[in-house]
Design goal:
Number of strands: 11
Structural class: alpha+beta
Largest sheet: 5 strands, antiparallel
Strand order of the largest sheet: 5-9-8-7-6
Oligomer: single chain
Radius of gyration: 23 Å
Distance between the termini: 49 Å
């Protein structure tokens, strides 16, 4: 975008660009999201920034009206495979807070100086500033959604000291922590992930997304695959609540997400054994529900295809679900090889019951955490009743995840991870591609050998010959074909294949000959 086109987006208060860039106003000293409802400033008083951290680094404070720190993440970071995109995903997962800049650089395979230089050049802020902006946002959420003392919030948000916490809050919001807590927006506030307190006592959040959001399809997808013990979905379609356990850096947690969407957000409640895990837990839920997607960009590209145009208009805002835990997703992909969705779900329940870690205290149907990969590397899996070759694949993958042969963190080089997966016995192109799409959040995967995909293309009258024109959103194209209507379907009859799973890996020949 040019600066003139950005200014036009600001003038029209275009929410499609919230999170894609920020603008600051020299006469007021504040920065905003493009859709800010305040009076549009004169062009010569406006400066544009790629990140909120860059605006903060230039001395601007966050607008109290539009809360620019609460926008959805930029879809660009999911689409980009370069070091900047990978770094942004890792920073979002809290790596800088836990491991410092040196830890971030080590995960990326660059020196700390190289990472600093590249982030500054493209984003106007280095890793410390980007992590600081994220800590300030976490602190604001805790101040406005809990009654915790400010000192506890400071360390839970990742600050090294109370003084650093106080100084940062005053600098970014032009308020003291006490004043920021008192400025908590009401129930009907359009901007900011601040939800009313929930009777259950969980930390209530509003997780923002941009554009239309096909909640029914993603809840259908999760419900078909919910594994007993770690996942549960209750309620009727349209009013369901998805619950699952989370294995977090500092302890277990539970996330609840409601299907009913607010005005641009999903209601979420987090139950954490350690508040320090708030940022990580939030990002993992966002990835699972694909909340940082840009449905406008997806629709523009896919809508240019005459066949996909009809599917996109039939189901606007269709998402490509990610994963709350990359290792878990990878192991579940192997469990789902050559079996139906229901059978894969049953196998997952048996695995959790036999090898999962029990929660300190069960929460309804949630009783366990998914097993750690290192705990599965040497077990027999006899209780699963799977073929010997697939049990060996499960052990091989578990060992590779445990010893680092295969790395699936938020900033992993996707090409490198796929090559490492394909080097394992029993892992073929379908499984590796499925893991790349869901565990690594790649928006541009097409599983050309998938049976359900080919069936969906046939129903829609398309073929993979046109796939290059769908880049870089082929994962979304695949979901649209999986959701393609069957003859006689009403618009809401189906969300995806019920009997033929796209987790059924057509890799018999590979497993038999490797």
């Amino acid at each position: 975008m040019t600066e003139d086109s950005r200014y036009e987006a600001v003038r029209s208060r275009d929410a499609r660009f919230d999170g894609a860039f920020f603008f600051a106003v020299s006469t007021t000293g504040i920065y905003c999201r493009p859709s800010c409802p305040a009076t549009t400033p004169r062009r010569h008083n406006v400066t544009f920034y790629p990140t909120s951290a860059a605006a903060q680094g230039s001395g601007f404070r966050a607008c109290r009206r539009c809360r620019p720190d609460a926008v959805p993440g930029s879809a660009e970071w999911n689409a980009r495979a370069d070091v900047v995109g990978r770094a942004m995903r890792l920073i979002g997962d809290g790596v800088v807070d836990r491991e410092g800049v040196s830890g971030l650089a080590a995960r990326l395979g660059y020196s700390a100086r190289q990472v600093q230089r590249q982030l500054n050049a493209e984003l106007g802020a280095g890793p410390v500033a980007l992590a600081r902006a994220q800590r300030a946002h976490t602190a604001r959420v805790l101040l406005q959604t809990t009654g915790l003392p400010a000192t506890e919030i400071a360390f839970a948000a990742g600050f090294a000291s109370v003084r650093q916490f106080n100084d940062t809050i005053r600098e970014i919001y032009a308020l003291t922590p006490s004043e920021l807590r008192a400025a908590r927006p009401g129930r009907g506030a359009r901007f900011g992930p601040v939800a009313p307190q929930h009777a259950s006592g969980g930390l209530a959040l509003r997780l923002p997304f941009r554009g239309p959001y096909a909640a029914r399809q993603i809840f259908d997808h999760l419900q078909r695959r919910a594994i007993t013990g770690i996942e549960d979905i209750g309620g009727e379609p349209g009013g369901r609540t998805y619950r699952r356990t989370l294995r977090l850096p500092n302890g277990p947690g539970i996330a609840e997400v409601d299907e009913v969407t607010g005005d641009g957000w999903l209601e979420c409640r987090l139950y954490l054994s350690e508040l320090r895990d708030l940022t990580t837990a939030t990002q993992r839920v966002r990835r699972l529900f694909d909340l940082d997607a840009d449905p406008y960009a997806v629709a523009e590209r896919l809508g240019a295809d005459p066949v996909l145009a009809g599917l996109v208009s039939r189901c606007p805002g269709l998402r490509s679900p990610g994963a709350a835990d990359a290792h878990e997703l990878a192991l579940r992909a192997v469990l789902g090889q050559q079996v139906s969705v229901a059978a894969g779900r049953t196998l997952g329940g048996k695995l959790v019951a036999a090898h999962g870690d029990p929660l300190p205290e069960p929460s309804g149907a949630l009783t366990h955490l998914f097993p750690r990969s290192q705990d599965l590397a040497t077990v027999s899996f006899a209780e699963l009743g799977m073929p010997g070759a697939r049990r060996e694949t499960l052990r091989t993958l578990s060992a590779a995840l445990a010893d680092g042969t295969v790395t699936l963190d938020a900033g992993t080089d996707r090409d490198q991870a796929e090559r490492a997966l394909l080097g394992l016995r029993g892992i073929g192109p379908w499984t590796a591609g499925y893991i790349r799409m869901r565990a690594l959040g790649d928006p541009d995967v097409l599983l050309t050998g998938d049976v359900a995909l080919r069936a969906g293309m046939l129903r829609a009258g398309s073929s993979a010959a046109h796939a290059d024109t769908w880049r870089p959103w082929r994962s979304y194209a695949m979901h649209h074909f999986w959701n393609a209507p069957h003859p006689g379907d009403e618009p809401s009859d189906r969300s995806e294949p019920a009997l033929v799973s796209h987790e059924r890996a057509p890799e018999r020949s590979r497993i038999a000959h490797t």
